[in-house]
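explain this:
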Amino acid sequence: MPIKIAPRATITDEFKQVMTDIYRAKLQQYQNEAERVAESPKYYAEFIQRRGQAIAQLRALIKDPARIDMEYTRLRTLPYTKFETVTREGYPYLYGLTKDVIIDFNGKWNMGQYGVVIPLAFFASMRLVHPDIRSTVRYWKAIQMIPMRQMMATERTPHHTARMPYFNNTVAQVNNPLDMEPYACWGGFSPIIFACGDECDVIELFRNIYIYLCRYDPHSPLARVNREMTERFKFAERIE
C-alpha cells in the first residue's frame, strides 16, 4: 500500500514577494537604528548584542535562496491549505486559508475552515516604510478570522466577532467580510501575537492564530456559550 502524504499548503509568488518585502523592511529598520547609535561605542555594542543575531538571520533570508526556501517549507507545514495575498479597495493583505478548526467545548466541534486575513500595517516595519498605511487601517485590531462556512457571520469564534460598520451614525450593510469591523479578545495570546507583528515573524503569527482559533477560554468576555456551540455558531458541527 502506497504511503499517503498529506498535502501541504500552496504559496503564491505574490505572497512570497510580500514576505521578502516585510523582511527587507525589518532589516532596514534595524540598520536605521544602528546608524542612530553608531557614534556611541557603548550603545552600539548593546544594540549589536540585542539585535546582531536577528540582523544576520534577516540578511541570510534575503540573500540566500536556500534560507528563504526553508522559510517557505516551514510555512507549508502549518495547518493551512494555501497562502496568498488579497486586496480590498487598493489595500493589500496576507491571507491564509486554514484546515478545519476543531474546538473542544462540551465535546469537539468542527468550525470548518477560516480565512485568516492580516493587513500589512500589522507588521511594524511596513508601517515605517509605508507610513500612509497607518491611517488606512486600525492595525492593532484589524486581523480578521473569517468562517468560510458563513463568511458574513458576526459571531465568528468564541473570542472573535465582527459587526457592520457605522457611517454618520448609521449602520451600513456591507457584503464583503473585510468591510466589517473586527473585535478580538486575544487574552493570553496578546503578547505573542503583537510580538510577531513587531518582529515581523510571518510564520509564527499564522501558527499562533491557528492555535488561537482552536482554543476556548470561558473567562473571555466574548465567550458567551452555554452548552451547544450552535447556539451562537450555526455553522458549527459536533463531531463527538
User: Anything to note?
Assistant: The first helix runs from residue 13 to 37.
